[in-house]
Amino acid sequence: MGLLSDLSRELGMSLLVITHDLPFVVDIADELVVLYAGTVVETGKPSRVLREPRHPYTRALLQSVPPTSSFRVRGERRVPLPTMDGAVPDLRTRQTGCPFASRCPDVRDRCRSEAPASTAFSDGSVRCFLHEPPNARGTAA
What we know:
Layout lengths: L1 H10 L20 E5 L2 E6 L1 H6 L4 H8 L45 H5 L5 E3 L2 E3 L15
Antiparallel strand pairs: 1-2, 2-4, 3-4
């Protein structure tokens, strides 16, 4: 990965890395884009996203990364990782509301019927009613 990162810098080329392991890209990515069911749910500098994830799916991804101290190989004890209830929505059919609503621990009634707009911050964006600006329609609570 280091070689690819070095080459992209030297040649002035972009490098797109697709992974569920967000900490893996923290040192090589300029920006992190988190997608769920084909929808961008959060963007930002990798260090900020890893330190302060805003979207519930981003938090779930980070919780699923094995802590270095507990990751073991060669038959030693393994620590079970957290899982998310539910399943990814069927992308062949048109969805109503937030695509993560059926799996979200912070779901609101509104999430099931409306798709949240993306809210921009100085350090990224998030598509979630939990971070809706105060002057927007409805409330995040």
